[in-house]
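We were asked to recover a plausible sequence for a given structure. The inputs and outputs are reproduced exactly as logged, with field labels preserved.

PROBLEM: sequence recovery
POSITIONS: 165
GIVEN STRUCTURE:
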C-alpha cells in the first residue's frame, strides 16, 4: 500500500516539475483557470461540462507527456540527432493537436454573445469582482513569465522496487 501511495507522490512531483519548468504548462493552466472561472455564467449541460473537463485534462496531460519525451530524449541523445528531433517535434505536435481541439470545444461552448454581454455586465457592476479579475490576470502574467526552474537532473531512484508504475 505504501508503494501505491508513493506513486501519487512521484506523480505530484512530476506535475510540479512541469509547472515550474515549462512555460507552456503555465499558460495551459492559466487558460484552464479562466475557462473554469467563467463556466458558471453558462448554462452548460453535464455533457458540455464533461467535454470542458476532458479537454483541459487532455491538454495538461499532453504537455506533461511532451515534457517527459523532451527530458528523456535529452538524456539519451544530448547531441543533435534527426530522430531525437522527430521525437520532440511529434510530442510537441501532440500538444498542439490537443490544444487545438480544446480551443474548438471552447469556442463552440463559450462563444455566445448574450452570455459574454452578461459577463461584462456582471464585472461592470461588481467592482470587487472586477478588481479580483484584473489582479488575477496580473498574477497569471507574472507566473507565466516568471523564470523557469532549471532541471537539475536530481530524481528519484529508478530501481525496480521504486519504479513500479
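RECOVERED SEQUENCE:
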Amino acid at each position: 500500500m505504501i508503494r501505491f501511495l508513493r506513486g501519487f507522490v512521484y506523480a505530484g512531483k512530476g506535475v510540479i516539475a512541469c509547472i515550474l519548468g515549462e512555460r507552456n504548462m503555465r499558460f495551459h493552466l492559466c487558460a484552464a483557470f479562466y475557462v473554469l472561472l467563467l463556466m458558471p455564467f453558462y448554462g452548460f449541460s453535464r455533457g458540455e461540462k464533461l467535454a470542458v473537463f476532458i479537454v483541459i485534462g487532455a491538454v495538461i496531460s499532453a504537455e506533461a507527456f511532451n515534457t517527459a519525451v523532451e527530458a528523456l530524449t535529452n538524456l539519451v541523445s544530448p547531441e543533435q540527432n534527426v530522430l531525437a528531433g522527430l521525437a520532440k517535434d511529434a510530442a510537441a505536435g501532440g500538444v498542439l493537436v490537443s490544444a487545438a481541439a480544446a480551443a474548438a470545444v471552447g469556442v463552440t461552448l463559450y462563444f455566445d454573445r448574450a452570455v459574454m454581454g452578461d459577463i461584462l455586465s456582471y464585472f461592470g457592476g461588481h467592482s470587487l469582482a472586477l478588481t479580483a479579475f484584473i489582479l488575477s490576470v496580473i498574477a497569471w502574467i507574472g507566473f507565466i513569465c516568471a523564470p523557469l526552474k532549471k532541471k537539475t537532473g536530481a530524481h528519484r531512484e529508478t530501481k525496480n522496487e521504486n519504479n513500479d508504475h
